Amino acid sequence: MASLGRLAITLPSAFHDARQCVELARRAEDEWQYPAIWLAETAGADSFSLAGAIAQATSRVEIGTAIVPVYNRTPAVLAMTTNTLDQLSEGRFILGLGSSSHAIMRDWNGVDFHAPLGHVRESVEIVREALTGAKTDYTGKHFRSKGLRLGAVPEKPVRIYLAGLREKMLNLAGEVGEGLIINFQPLGAMPQILAAYRAGATKAGRDGSKDEVVCRFQVCVTDDKEKARAIVRMAFGGYLSAPVYNKFLAWCGYEAAAEAIAAGFAAKDRGAVAAAMSDELVDSIAILGTPDECREQLAAFVEAGVTTPVLSPLATSPEAAEAVFETFAPAAGQAPG
């Protein structure tokens, strides 16, 4: 059987409240035996609060954020929170950071979304400095921190992974991060994504070829692919119209589709957005089909360099979402590493 890598699950779930998500985390560790849980942060539960609760409810599973933005929490707060979660999880926490998007930062949070490369770099540098236990003494273009000294800092450095889409952010992720977080990439784009990340690692004097590559996949287990594709178009057309993802789509070789999606969204024409998302495009960014077909698609991404596929169910009920986690559970012998 082809390798499915180090399969993990994503939380929160759209169909479960925070307490129910903690129960899902317990099941992920004990019943399904997933090795890791990666927490998304959009408009549901905030990642750090949920991570703390999960850390107390579990004892073995790794807990990571994929991702927390660097704009709406200061580097000092990120450092304090990371230190706290490292303690609560007894060293199982991984800090995943990124720049997020115009919609989430500018529109939802009222934060000016600019200079993402500089904001990510400086946030990581301050967080790392603070986690050594020394007083911070940092002045950058976007952030500064003077005199912060954390108590009871980690014995081992907390891993920091960075999200990247296009070349410059992927370079930065390889340069200052220790792992890569990606999303919505077509299979054919994996070589250029990994090349950009590893070039950044080489610039920093290290080999990034063995780093963890975490990718969240939208997964729909179904015999009706047409219906599943319609769900993808409805749920993610807006994502692909956002500037960061739209430019990423073009960078991956889908220039015409990206232009048509952006134009349709600007005209408030949802039908045009959906029409621009061809079956081939949808199938390249989502995992759709029978369990065996989904395994085959996941295995292709693992072969291309994804080490940690993170399952995000495309479902219409709590039961259907849980069924996705059950279907691919390592405990069921379906996910050899």
Describe this structure in words.
By secondary structure, the protein is of the alpha/beta class. The protein has a domain at 8-217 and 306-320: TIM Barrel (Alpha-Beta Barrel). It is built from 14 helices and twelve strands. An eight-stranded parallel beta barrel has the order 1-2-3-5-8-9-10-12, surrounded by seven helices. A two-stranded antiparallel sheet has the order 6-7. Strand 4 (68-69), helix 3 and strand 5 (93-98) form a beta-alpha-beta unit. Helix 8 crosses helix 10 and helix 10 (255-266) runs antiparallel to helix 11 (270-276). The model has no long low-confidence stretch (mean pLDDT 95).
CATH architecture of the domain at 8-217 and 306-320: Alpha-Beta Barrel
Query: Pairing-aware structural class of the strands and helices?
Result: alpha/beta
Structure summary, number of beta strands: 12
Number of helices: 14
Q: Give the uncertain stretches in residue-range form.
A: none
Could you tell me the CATH topology label of the domain at 8-217 and 306-320.
TIM Barrel
Order of helices and strands: EHEHEEHEHHEEEHEHEHHHHHEHEH
The CATH superfamily of the domain at 8-217 and 306-320 is identified as Luciferase-like domain
First-last Cα distance: 10 Å
Judging from the principal axes of the Cα atoms, what is the shape? Answer: globular
- How can the largest sheet be summarized? 8 strands, parallel, barrel
Strand percent estimate:
15-25%
Mean pLDDT: 95
- Fraction of residues in helices? 40-55%
Radius of gyration: 19 Å
What is the strand arrangement across the widest sheet? Answer: 1-2-3-5-8-9-10-12
Per CATH, the class of the domain at 8-217 and 306-320 reads Alpha Beta
